[in-house]
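Subject: for your reference before the review

Hello V.,

The reviewers asked for a structural picture of the protein, and I figured it would be easier to keep everything in one thread rather than splitting it across files. Below is the amino acid sequence we used in the manuscript, unchanged from the supplementary table.
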Amino acid sequence: MNSKDKKAIVMLLDNIELRSKHTIAELQLLVRQIDSIKELIHRNDVQQPNYEQIKELVQNETPSPRPTGPNYLIRREEVITMTGLSRSTIYTLMKNSEFPLSIKLSERSVAWRRGDIQNWISNKIASNN
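And here is what came back from the structure prediction:
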């Protein structure tokens, strides 16, 4: 296995790790919801809980799903995690037109389109094969 293959595998593993962290957070939220429902049942003297109370409890704790579409904007830290590149390397590659350009959100804030970063990663992997 050459160094390019190793780097591509590491980038894919970093991407999987990022997705796993989101999944773990969702599972932890689910455990908290289950514990809250158990507590609600216990407070009601083990009677059947009120459906509306449970629904409200779950809705209050459930975050809106994180968008993952290609037009979703991601911040620099996520780009670094997805690509395995350092901040300075990203900006050097952008300057040399070898990396997707960022989108200026405000005076001191930029983001990238998720789809652009995913395409860049896919092209890097394809060009190494």
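For the response letter, the relevant points are probably these. DSSP finds five helices and three strands in the chain. The helical segments are 3-43, 51-61, 76-83, 87-95, 114-128.

Happy to draft the paragraph if you're swamped.

O.
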